[in-house]
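ok so i was messing around last nite and threw this chain in just to see what happens. nothing serious, just curious
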Amino acid sequence: MVQPSNDTPPAVPVGLKVVFADDGSIGLFWQSNAEADLNGYIVYRSTDSIKFAAINFTTYNYYVDDSLNYNTNYYYRITAVNIGDKESLPSNIVSGKPINLYPPSMPQGLNINARNWQGKISVYLSWNSNYEGDIAGFNIYRSLSPNFNADSSNLIGFSTGIDFSDTVNLKLYTQYYYCIRAVDKGNLISTHSSVVYDEIYGIPEIVFPEDGAETTYFSSFVIKAVNVPANYKIVVQDNEFYGTFWNTGFYSSVVNDTISVIFNPDYVNTNVPYYWRVLTYSPNSSQPNSVSPLYKFVIKQ
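result:
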């Protein structure tokens, strides 16, 4: 069999059709070309069926065009391109109007992280992107009750992305419940996501060594626990900017009282500064809940 030359344009693609047109998206499908030197297809779009502009290149025999206006007629044609960049004549023209028919699907993957970081408190939410191409954003709902209605009475914000930081009228040691709903460009709204919750912890107080202390070698840190049972992590650095010299994590049911935590590094240097901080973690997030300032101590020889 004689192979076509790369200087010969591919055959005109055939069978182009619209397989769906709704909710701001149009799906196209066509028959695959048979040329051995085929590189792919260029998709052209127009809103008047006359002036077409290339909008994308694909190696597949289908294409989904999204983020479209609901009430506009869109026209499409395609060409085939070989590895020598020779382009075929255009295919037949098809059209569709992606009217808004269905509300978005329920958002998935909602995560929560209550934060007391650098003197600021917030509750950070993140979630997965919806697959629909006409998503305008997400309504954020908050309540003090797990069984709440995701309606205007509990609406606290809107996000055009896939995360949100709530900073409005928050208090320590208060459980906040959240869910979200996706909103499309035609203001159709999804059902609400799963409900997540968290609470913002206070920062553990340091008891020993005090910030700036110069001390002989010691075998335990002493901190004052927060007001709820929590997971803790103590991190020691040998500089004030980055890195971990030593760390330990633990759970404590102690509430508002002192905790002694064994300090057992393989070695310590004398007369040089070390920096340490205390972090807490709630059961509902793998990210720190409260983060203390960075404290300094020196072990004297």
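not much to say yet. Residues 205-299 form a domain with the Immunoglobulin-like fold (CATH 2.60.40.2550).
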